[in-house]
Amino acid sequence: MNDKIKIGVVLSGCGNKDGAEIHESVMTLLAIHRHNADYQCFAPDVPQRHVLNFITDEEMPESRNVLIESARIARGAIKDLKEFDADSLDAVIFPGGLGVIKNLSTWITEGPDCSINEEVVRVVRSMADKKKPIGALCIAPVIMAKILGDVEVTVGQDVTTAETLEKMGAHHRKTTHGEITVDLKAKLVTTPCYMLDARVDQIADGAEKLVKAVIELIEE
Fold first, then answer.
1. What residues contact 72, with CB distance under 8 A and at least 6 apart?
2. How far is it, in rounded angstroms, from Cα 25 to Cα 11?
3. What is the spatial distance between Cα 15 and Cα 98, in angstroms, rounded to a whole number?
4. Is 138 a catalytic residue?
5. pLDDT tens track of the chain, all 220 residues?
6. Which residue of 7, 61, 159, 212 is most buried, as measured by CB atoms within 10 A?
7. Of residues 14, 41, 114, 138, which has the active-site annotation?
């Protein structure tokens, strides 16, 4: 593998219910290093939609910042998404978690009529324009469908989300644990992860296969 490959990883907070899914994020970072590539984490410098108590699922009376929360996963080695430069990175990957549809977009309340954070749109479109690979785990494919339109993606076997993706002009492929979907034309790789009732090892399998496919697309 090319040890100069560098992949941007875009996080949406810290914790699956109101931010980035931690297992998916960490397994993605692990897979990148195991393939002799490197990464740079990014997140938008914006407020979280809300903060949840992960034990009770109740909303907490406090506010948090997506960039600062994402820095927990990145161990502080993170940049504002505004600093993302498509020319200096070979690919970009978006782990899932409800932060994708709460903090990176308004999908949680507006579905296919949602708006997407303008920096996320810039990042995705700039990479697509340069024909550089994009990876999306779990629920993250919905924002790819919103931004890119006619792409093939997977969210596993979630019928409602799959139907919504089809209405947006995307094409959904049903998958199970550890499987990926590769849209060669768009250079877009997706995997379901916690869209399924999954174990951590199954998340690792999905992240590993996605990263491997992304790197293969870089090296084409």
1. 14
2. 8
3. 8
4. yes
5. 456 899 999 999 999 999 999 999 999 999 999 999 999 999 999 999 999 999 999 999 999 999 999 999 999 999 999 999 999 999 999 999 999 999 999 999 998 999 999 999 999 999 999 999 999 999 999 999 999 999 999 999 999 999 999 988 999 999 999 999 999 999 999 999 999 999 999 999 999 999 999 999 998 8
6. 7
7. 138
